[in-house]
Specification:
This protein is α/β, with parallel strands linked by helices. The chain folds into four domains: about 50 residues, no CATH class; about 170 residues, Substrate Binding Domain Of Dnak, Chain:A, Domain 2 (Up-down Bundle), CATH 1.20.1270; about 150 residues, 3-Layer(aba) Sandwich (Rossmann fold); about 240 residues, Rossmann fold. It has 28 helices and 18 strands. The protein has a six-stranded parallel β-sheet. A six-stranded parallel β-sheet has the order 15-14-13-16-17-18, with helices on both faces. The protein has a two-stranded antiparallel sheet with strand order 1-2. α25 links the parallel β16 and β17. α6 packs antiparallel against α8. The radius of gyration is 25 Å and the shape is globular. The N and C termini lie far apart (about 100 Å). About 55% of the residues are buried. The N terminus and C terminus are likely disordered. Bound molecules: iron/sulfur cluster and Broken Fe4S4 cluster (MSK). Broken Fe4S4 cluster binds next to α14 and α21.
Length: about 675
């Protein structure tokens, strides 16, 4: 009998491996088609790994501690759990509450670090641009520069001989860059942006002792406090978790958004498309994936150069098609209209099309398995960031540096063009793509829904008060392969808009909504309740407003602040008929976002899983008691319709407290009814 070779053994093991049912894995047809194709080609994706790798139940409950070498200490929730007699302990005596709280705040530290380090990288480039040390980047939006400067304590005017003169813009930019950069590590004081919040909110943070001192310190302090044998009080741990989360939302993320807007332009609504169908068979396809837009901005600029397009034509392509995955995609969409190739869970699938000539990745949310998938095709996988390399030998590393940014981008684009001719004949691009309008922000919402002659956000508030708009929801966050791709995102959002709740979206929720066709003004008449449909049709906006990337959740905080300022809906964010949601979250960043949103006064519902189920007392603290402190709290609901209705119930509770609940029982009045009222 012939000897069975290692390769054959591996192949037969592969053949017997269980794979995902594409229909059960995603609601999206393009995704289903590509999962099937991957399986036909024998290429494993995350959807299949979801079948073969089961999550650890104890880790899922948040009660596994491995913070020292005496562990891991695993404390699962007993089937007959009784709070009064619960005596679970780790070797050192740590209780489930302490362990779950330590794990939870470490997730906040991870998330806040990721957002904030992204912000720091942007601040570094900003400073180089302001000091004119690089030709590639300029200060594009001087209006925003002048808006941001005073918020960082930078004067925009100067007094000379009794006269007030405008300060030189270059000088302002350098000082803004320096002040911003200082926020990561200043020795004294507190973060400058905290006072952008409504005053009562700031006072709550002050009273609770959670004003962040600087961004880095709060993250470091979490790592210290959660070290073996330090902070053992879950409430005290959450205090620090809150402080670090606020340093993310009102610090690192907000600075990233502002500095990116000043350098690359403040987004304004633009038309584009979304889903794998944006890839073009006869074009060089470059997919950009990750989070930091500093490199992708350059790739966009270079790919549009006539000489590059000409070079692509010489190589037999009709042009260059850029598209994006995850939040780098959202960044270049909101500023340039570059189409969205897909969500977090479609990253492997984009390569499976066989049409991607280069995938360029920077930081965060990048599957290590991309390299294995790319190996099966001609796709060049290029890492660009010194902190995010891959070990596989088919991955190229072209380290990006702002001092030779254009040259780096040219090298990448040329590499992709040169690779076009290596494409196999087996290209399969799903036809699905949806038209979208994206690129909203605090400024454009003001423009579309406010109108400068009536005062900022006045019309939006007016329509909330009269009940046409029932409330506002921020629906954000990732995909999670443990739940059906995009199902939760889309069901939650559709249920909200059906009930007249306008949705602000970012991250992969925004991409999911884009793929479903919810980012067009026309979708309002199909999916919205009558009040919201009327507003969207009158103003010409979609019922779901795409506000950008993960760091752009800071735009949601500022939009809520503007609503408070416009008046008539209370004095603080916690008074507003507003709720948050992350239906399919998976990233530590979502936990940090959730906590800064909660601490900003917003009730926030998570889907998929919640990592504290093994510590019911700590979970109750997050789900109930947090509201008494901050006016916002976390909640969990896996069923998307119930999830949306928890948010709607909260919105209605806030409407009632504001005394505007009756306004929703609107009576359609004709002219004589109105005359009678006025008389
Ligand atoms: Fe176990 Fe305590 Fe060490 Fe955690 S810190 S692993 S609970 S002994
Ligand atoms: S990309 S963090 S999967 S939203 Fe920002 Fe999507 Fe979540 Fe990454």
């Amino acid at each position: 009998m012939a000897e069975v070779t290692k390769v054959e053994k591996k192949a037969s093991a592969k053949a017997s491996k269980k794979v995902a049912d594409p229909m059960a894995a995603s609601v999206d047809k393009a995704t289903q088609q590509m999962i099937r194709r991957a399986q036909d080609l024998g290429i494993e994706t995350c959807f299949d790994r979801n079948i073969t790798i089961k999550p650890c139940n104890i880790g899922n409950q948040g009660t596994c501690c491995k913070n020292c070498g005496m562990g891991p200490c695993r404390l699962p929730l007993p089937k007959d759990y009784d709070e009064a007699t619960d005596d679970r302990k780790g070797l050192c005596g740590a209780t489930p509450n302490t362990i779950a709280a330590r794990n939870f705040v470490r997730m906040i530290a991870g998330g806040a670090a990721a957002h904030s380090d992204h912000g720091r990288a942007v601040a570094e480039v900003f400073l180089s641009a302001a000091r004119k040390e690089t030709d590639a980047y300029q200060i594009k939006d001087t209006r925003k520069l002048l808006d941001v400067a005073p918020l960082l304590g930078v004067a925009t005017t100067v007094e000379k001989d009794g006269e007030v003169l405008d300060r030189d813009l270059d000088e302002i930019a350098v000082e803004v860059g320096e002040k911003a950069f200082n926020e990561w590590g200043k020795a004294e004081g507190e973060l400058e942006y905290l006072t952008r919040a409504p005053k009562p909110r700031y006072e709550i943070w002050k009273k609770q002792g959670v004003l962040p001192r600087n961004i880095d310190r709060e993250i470091v302090e979490i790592m210290h406090r959660t070290h073996m044998g330090v902070d053992q009080d879950y409430k005290n741990l959450m205090k620090q978790g809150t402080r670090a989360a606020l340093a993310d939302g009102w610090g690192g993320s907000m600075l990233a958004t502002d500095l990116q807007d000043i350098m690359f332009g403040t987004p304004f609504p633009r038309v584009s498309e979304a889903n794998l169908g944006v890839l073009k068979e006869d074009h060089v396809n470059i997919v950009i994936h990750g989070h930091e837009p500093v490199l992708s901005e350059m790739v966009v600029a270079v790919a549009q150069k006539p000489e590059m397009v000409e070079y692509a034509k010489q190589k037999g392509a009709k042009g260059i098609q850029l598209s994006g995955i995850c939040c780098t995609a959202n960044e270049i969409l909101e500023r340039h209209g570059v189409p969205l190739c897909g969500t977090f869970l479609q990253q492997e699938l984009s390569i499976i099309t066989g049409a991607v000539d280069a995938m360029v990745v920077d930081v965060q949310c990048i599957f290590q398995n991309l390299a294995n998938v790319a190996k099966c095709f001609h796709t060049k996988l290029i890492t660009t960031h010194p902190i995010a390399k891959m070990e596989q030998d088919n991955v190229l590393h072209i380290e990006f540096d702002e001092h030779h940014a254009i040259e780096d981008a040219e090298r990448i684009v040329k590499l992709a063009i040169d690779n076009f001719e290596n494409r196999g004949t087996e290209v399969m691009i799903p036809p699905q793509k949806s038209p979208i309008v994206a690129g909203f922000g605090v400024e454009s919402v003001e423009y579309h829904l406010g109108g400068s002659f009536r005062g900022t956000y006045y019309t939006l508030n007016d329509n909330i008060i009269n009940g046409r708009i029932r409330g506002i929801a921020g629906v954000v966050g990732c995909n999670n392969a443990r739940v059906k791709h995009n199902e939760g995102h889309i069901a939650v959002v559709k249920e909200l808009i059906k009930n007249d709740v306008i949705v602000l979206t970012t991250g992969c929720n925004a991409i999911a909504c884009a793929m479903e066709g919810l980012l067009t003004p026309e979708s309002a008449s199909v999916f919205c309740g009558p009040g919201l449909a009327e507003i969207c049709e009158t103003v010409g906006i979609p019922p779901v407003l795409h506000l950008g990337s993960c760091v752009d959740n800071s735009r949601i905080l500022l939009a809520a602040t503007e609503v408070v300022k416009a008046g008539g809906l209370g004095n603080d964010i916690s008074d507003l008929p507003v709720a948050g949601s992350a239906p399919e979250w998976m990233s530590e960043k979502a936990i940090s976002i959730g906590q800064y949103v909660v601490a900003s006064g917003i009730y926030t519902v998570f889907g998929a899983v919640f990592p504290t189920a093994g510590a019911p007392v700590f979970q109750r603290y997050l789900f109930e008691e947090m509201e008494k402190i901050y006016g916002g709290m976390c909640d969990f609901e896996a069923d998307p319709i119930k999830h949306a209705h928890k948010m709607i119930a909260h919105i209605d509770k806030k409407r009632k407290a504001l005394g505007i609940d009756k306004a929703r029982d609107r009576v359609m009045m004709d002219f004589s009814d109105r005359q009678a009222l006025e008389a």
